[in-house]
Amino acid sequence: MLDIARIRADTPSAQDNVFLASAGSSLMPAPVVRVMRDYLDLEAALGGYEAYGREQRRVDAAYDSAARLIGAHPQEIAFMESATAAWQMAFYSMPFKEGDVVLTGEAEYGANFVALLHLRRRTGIEIQVVPSDEAGEIDLEALRRMISPRVRLICLTWIPTNGGLVNPAEEVGKIAHDHGIAYLLDACQALGQLPVDVQSLRCDMLSATGRKFLRGPRGTGFLYVRSGFMPQLEPHTIDHFSAPWVERNRYELRDGARRYETWESNYVARMGLGAAMDYAMGIGLTAIQERCAALAARLRAGLQDLPTAAMRDLGRKPSAIVSFTIDGKPAEHVAAQAAKAGIVLGVTLPSGTRLDAERRDLPPLVRASPHYFNTEQEIDGLLDFLRRV
Ligand SMILES: Cc1ncc(COP(=O)(O)O)c(C=O)c1O
């Protein structure tokens, strides 16, 4: 059982508004903010290098936290400023050649898909989109049929930006593993919402962000690269941190995933991300998943009873990202009216997941993403508001 009163006491701003936008950028818990303020004060007092010299152990503990959070080794973690930067580092570092095939799903995130188009133009890779099954999940049978010697990478968005779909990431990992194909998993909307274990996912690379369900600061994310896969994934760009300049005409790639980082980064934000990961693990990812699922189920049940609402989620066991439309009311209007009523919702646009949006002819959708700090009363309050809007 979660101690909701304590959790809400740690999130004072949850009292100001009904905050249902954790899939966008969630509310940071007070311990995360405190850690960042303290470190910022230290940098202000000592200068950044001296501050790090004093606090190196605590700053670097974030690698251990990230590794524990996803069942990896600290040497397999690289910190980045976003999930997109992490995904790009992995994708653009793949040694593609003309004619290589990349398989992806219909829920792939916009930033990822434009990068696929970019490398198709520059390198001549071929993009093949695996169709979805009747529930809207990536069709595993179709995926199996599409495997060929030309397939170099499978990239999958586990939970998309535009709704409740949870793709069968583990089953895809098994297929990739059985065929010896590299597997890049976008876990951006999964991390902090449910347990993540790279061993059972069998992904070679995983990208994640800090500010969404993890409740960390903006401008943070990380990349996991399986250590056995690292020799095949030379970073697409380097500096003298990722690859120390050891002789006049020679550099050496750093051991471990820090070869994907650069010298400079935001240590205040990293401290915050580390604290956010520790906070989530302190609560427990299984408990978080159960609470998120229960709140989302309550919302979906209420929407089902609302004649003006159309639910837009896909998948057999949807996540805590609830997408819907209200008859005759544009999503932007619903979200703006909700904001006036003190309810924070998101809007997801077709351009974020264009393949899915075109296939289902989706307009902009209202997106409500409850987190464990929300209450049943808040969900009911949203439903009341939607009845009136
Ligand atoms: C599925 C998915 N992948 C990737 C991203 C990109 O994350 P970031 O903005 O941290 O780069 C998002 C952001 O909404 C997302 O929903």
Give an overview in words:
A seven-stranded mixed beta sheet has the order 2-8-7-6-5-3-4, with helices on both faces. The chain has a four-stranded antiparallel beta sheet with strand order 11-12-15-14. Strands 1-13 form a two-stranded parallel ribbon. α3 (48-70) runs parallel beside α9 (267-283). α8 (198-201) links the parallel β6 and β7. The mean pLDDT is 98. The protein has helices spanning 4-9, 30-46, 48-70, 83-92, 110-123, 140-146, 169-178, 198-201, 267-283, 285-304, 331-340, 354-360, 376-388; strands spanning 18-19, 77-80, 101-105, 126-130, 151-157, 182-186, 205-209, 221-225, 245-247, 250-251, 309-311, 322-326, 343-344, 346-348, 365-368. With 389 residues, it is α/β, with parallel strands linked by helices. The structure holds pyridoxal-5'-phosphate.
Please outline what is shown here.
The protein has 389 residues and is α/β, with parallel strands linked by helices.
The main β sheet shows up as:
7 strands, mixed
Global structural class: alpha/beta
**What does the average pLDDT come to?**
98
Radius of gyration: 21 Å
Tell me the quaternary state.
single chain
Share of residues in strands: 15-25%
In whole angstroms, the N-to-C terminal distance is: 34 Å
**Helical stretch tally:** 13
Instruction: Give the uncertain stretches in residue-range form.
Output: none
Bound molecules: pyridoxal-5'-phosphate
Helix content: 40-55%
Q: Looking at the structure, what is the overall shape?
A: globular
